[in-house]
Amino acid sequence: MSADPRKPFAIVTGASTGIGYELAKCCAQNGFDLLVVADEAAIHKAATDLHGLGATVEAVEADLATLAGVEKVWAALGDRPLDALLANAGRGLGKGFLDQDFDAVRRVIDTNITGTVFLIQKAGRAMRAQGHGRILITGSIAGFIPGTYQAVYNASKAFLDSFSFALRHEVKEQGISVTCLMPGATETEFFERAGLMDTKIGQSSKDDPADVARTGFDAMMRGDGDVVSGWHNKLQTAIASVTPAGLLARQHGAAAAPGSGKQ
């Protein structure tokens, strides 16, 4: 089934569940046809559901921690103009860095940074050539906080937050907008997959992914540079900006330490 050339076209990564799925829903409900991507078979069920919202949807199961996975996504785009890239794919990892398997560490880095940046470069070059486009990058307020017991994950989000601000200024005169969505803890499968369910943060109340996605989508459509979802996350970000890094690291450790949720 081919996309309608009269409709805008978007790629959404990490779209099988959580924020990514909700971002894809926002796109479908606002007239976009879609290429949705995830590294699990559930992406095909998500595509079927999204098609029910009136969009033409193609699903690609690809590992965006690999360059080959990114190339697979890009090949699926073909010669269709790309109006929006919602780069949402991400992976977390809990527990102390010295106790983590390095293959798991590298997978976080390669998913959150390497694969994401490679796809953004491909999309950005295509958008520059056509003279327009929107890029939404899912960063995190975690990027403002040293992530004790989530050290690699928080550092990867600090990279994305910084990268998005810089890229926005590089391409702003080329018809491309870059928006960084910075959510806080959100009710998704992230915490279970990251091994954080026995922590205080894993057991805490979290934001609704649909609300987070709507905030990010609307900001992207307005062309905003960045948006923090939720007033409590805005407050946390403001506090983090004036709090010594050592204190932030200690506070994060108290919430993310293995077993802290049982205390």
Walkthrough of the structure:
- With 263 residues, this protein is of the alpha/beta class.
- It has one domain (9-262): Rossmann fold (3-Layer(aba) Sandwich).
- Helix content is 48%, strand content 14%.
- The chain has ten helices and seven strands.
- It has helices at residues 18-29, 42-51, 67-77, 102-130, 151-171, 190-193, 200-203, 209-222, 231-240, 245-256, and strands at residues 9-13, 33-38, 57-61, 84-87, 133-138, 176-182, 226-228.
- A seven-stranded parallel sheet has the order 3-2-1-4-5-6-7, with helices on both faces.
- α5 (151-171) links the parallel β5 (133-138) and β6 (176-182).
- α1 packs across α8, α3 packs parallel to α4 and α4 (102-130) runs parallel beside α5.
- Belongs to the short-chain dehydrogenases/reductases (SDR) family.
Key words describing this protein structure:
263 residues, alpha/beta, 48% helix, 14% strand, globular, SDR_fam, SDR family NAD(P)-dependent oxidoreductase, NAD(P)-bd_dom_sf
